[in-house]
Amino acid sequence: MSAHPTDTSRLKVWLDGKMMPYGEAVVPIMNHSLHYGSGIFEGVRGYETPRGTAIFRLDDHIRRFMGSAKIVRMPIPFKAKEISDAVVKVVKENRLGHCYIRPFGFYNDSQIGLSTLNKKASVYVYATNFGAYFGETKKRGVSCKISSMRRINSSILPSRAKGSGNYLNSIIANGEAKAAGFDEAILLSSDGHVAEGSGENIFLVVNGRLVAPDRGSDILLGITRDTIIKIAEATGLEVEERTVHKEELYTADEVFFTGTAAEVTPIVNIDGISIGSGDEGPITKMLAGKYSDIVTGKDRKFSDWLTYA
Asked: Which of 162, 178, 230, 246 does the annotation list as catalytic?
């Protein structure tokens, strides 16, 4: 797959309960979330299947969206099912196959000031054609730099919420990595253990075991991360969630990213050091294949993860 941007002149979006053309979905330029990063969001994937577009783990994504709203005290004026239904409607209306879907909660207000008290919250659902996040690079694997930035923790910002403002941390780390000639960044936790990529969770393969930074490592609890753990366990692969030292990345047999956008992407080089054979490893390849079969409806064992539009 490769990304093909949707023609926004014909795109329909959902804003506060109404379907409308993309160009008509406008908000005040002084809105709070634009200026202060007070929005929350989800990234959801849809995949073309013989039965239509399958939206992957939609209920789990919207559950996390509502959880993010609660953590940041945003009064979402819609129930979870209303937002899930809006996602399905946007995909259907735009006749999208492989796509990326963005539910976004924000303060639709134009008053200057930090306080969100009594400010109106709005919800927007957008979807676009979307392919491989890392493009052709994904096929050969990505190179990563361990960032000088540390991953935010809950004493600084609510790291378990998928909040817009949190991602400035990721944007700076990603920019640093790209400026140094790498594809992506890897951030360490505040105590120096491996956390995650700028927008992805990370896994290692060590002596045939799958290893993942644990919940105490300042990670976002990724839905794709959870998916890969469940797939691995179903195939009999031992999974270990624990703190991971950065040196373990260099000596691992395989390392890979997971994420809604990234899917399963092999990491073949970190800080100039080749990982394993310097190519996609067999366990990464196996898990990526099983993941692909599930999201495209070929593996019926996990069919309850699919919502058809």
From this structure: 162
